Amino acid sequence: MQTTDINQEIRSFLVASFLAGNAERLRDDGALLGELIDSTGVLELVNFLQEHFAITVDDDDVNPENLASVNSLVAYVSNKLAKG
């Protein structure tokens, strides 16, 4: 799966789940944690990533570095998919 596809899937989920369809508010480098996603939202996001991309999100991976923005999420998922 290409990073553009991963980006589109993640953006679609975030817009539908947290922005009520208001895609204009979502920037690829904009902060997600605390701005858009609260602690319950993190659980929803992790569940989406695991189910949609068939990856395992380890507890240690749930951190601001991986979940800070759309860009960091795309990089994280791309890395997990590349490792198999």
Largest sheet, strands/sense/barrel: none
Domain unit count: 1
Task: Please state the overall shape, judged from the principal axes of the Cα atoms.
Answer: globular
Report the uncertain regions.
none
Q: Any idea what the CATH architecture is?
A: Orthogonal Bundle
| Secondary structure tally, helices | 4
CATH topology: Non-ribosomal Peptide Synthetase Peptidyl Carrier Protein, Chain A
Structural class: mainly alpha
What is the residue-averaged pLDDT? 95
Helix and strand succession? HHHH
CATH superfamily: ACP-like
| CATH class membership | Mainly Alpha
- Helical residue percent? 55-70%
Tally of DSSP β-strands: 0
N→C terminal distance? 12 Å
Strand content: under 5%
Radius of gyration: 12 Å
Account of the 3D structure:
By secondary structure, this protein is mostly helical. The protein has a single domain (3-83), classed as Orthogonal Bundle (Non-ribosomal Peptide Synthetase Peptidyl Carrier Protein, Chain A). 58% of the residues lie in helices and 0% in strands. Helix 1 packs across helix 2 and helix 1 packs across helix 4 (70-83). The longest helix is centred in the first third of the chain and has 16 residues, at 3-18. The chain is globular and about 35 Å long. It starts with a helix and ends with a helix. The relative contact order is 0.19. The mean pLDDT is 95.
